[in-house]
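Feature request, filed as a ticket because there's no other form

It would be nice if the structure record came with a short human-readable summary line next to the tokens. Right now we just get the raw output. Example of a typical job, pasted below so the devs can see what we mean:
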Amino acid sequence: MKNLKILTIALLLGIGVRAQQPDPPGQVENHGEAVNQAYLFAHMTHQDYGRLYYSVSLDGLHWSALNNKERVFQDYKGHPDICKGHDGRYYIAGNTSDGSPDINFWVSSDLISWEKHSTYTPDLKSTPDYSYALQRIGAPKIFFDEDSKQYVVTWHTPHKEGTKEDPERYWASQRTLYVLSKDLKKFSEHPSRLFDWDMGTIDVFIRKIGGNYYAVIKDETYPTLYWTTGKTIRISKAPALLGPYSEPSAPISPNFREAPMLIPSPDDKIWYLYYEQYPGVSYGLSIADNMNGPWYQASGYTFHSDWDKYSFPPAVRHGCMITISKNEYNQLVDYFGMVKE
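Raw output as currently delivered:
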């Protein structure tokens, strides 16, 4: 009883009592028993936007920079997106700018050395029901579908220029397009729109989880009282790779978040969904035990160790996260070297 009184008084006075918050689920006590043993974050930085950098993690929560925080591949430009392909090698997509007509692909067997694989130039004007598209290609992403043995390449393209009075109409006009390919050298005849519904979407990627496909999107309409979901991360679901996709879910993130990234936890039972608070302010993390939710937000970027449940090297900007083997992790660390913060 005496100890309880002391604790109560300390709490009332705010003296030196700080409760340890619970850690995110999905971790394993013995790392050797982890289903997902390591992770790679391929990203850009605030100071060097659009170039390729690496950070790695063993738990999917705490990330360390590689290569002395310098570029890992000089030729790359774009918003990094990597997938493991039909031949077991890794493929990365990029473009030199949103105004460039080309999507570039490189390939690597070890995530260390990359070589040019192909260049694809979509005829945006040939997109059915979207011939009025502007010549813009934003953040191309690639997903290899094991069921159909084909890649789907997605990107966003607008159809309205911004104006001084209404710069946001450019962003609200973004629509997600895609093409299919068996080898990332030959592509389907023309781009197509991925979603039946009509709303601004960017940064879309697809994942097959269980018996369903999920499209993780950024709702690109500006938030108002009449569109409260604007600039948030949302999720759509479909029974097949190309849909039809459901109406987007309620927001997974707060407003003004973009560039979502999804990884499974080390024990493979939990989903970690990261997103950037832009422009380069911080990262958020939402957690769920299934893609349909419910999702909750973990605490991080507070710079208080007992509150931060995830951490990043300073100034990282968006890219992609993938699972890698412990051997691949060791090879990356041995080759590039890890930065100790």
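Something like this underneath would help us a lot:
Residues 85-304 form a domain with the Tachylectin-2; Chain A fold (CATH 2.115.10.20).
The first strand starts at residue 38 and ends at 45.
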